Amino acid sequence: MPHFFIDFEDGDQSLKDDDGEEYPSLEAARDAAIAALPDIGREKPPRDGKRSFVAYVRDGHGMVLCTVRLNLDAECLSEPQEVEG
């Protein structure tokens, strides 16, 4: 089974996967990265309500094969507005 590494970035913070894991395919490794990002996004957001999370799926040679991004952008208005729908 192929061995992949999933590294994460959250602004100035990064977490490099030194061990990796076996996945049946690149798509399965990509799906694992997608599944992990929402969990990382549950941490307390910065005051401006904006965060960008990135996961990189690498092969054993360090080649980035997939990039997965999750962006958070929260705004509050000073005046309440009706939501049309």
Automatic annotation (TrEMBL):
Looking at the record, which segments are called Disordered? 1-20
Ranges where the DUF6894 domain occurs: 3-70
Biased composition regions of type Acidic residues, renumbered to the chain: 7-20
Q: What is this protein called?
A: DUF6894 domain-containing protein
Instruction: List, alphabetically, the InterPro entries matched.
Output: DUF6894 (IPR054189)
Name of a matching Pfam family: DUF6894
Specify the species: Methylobacterium isbiliense
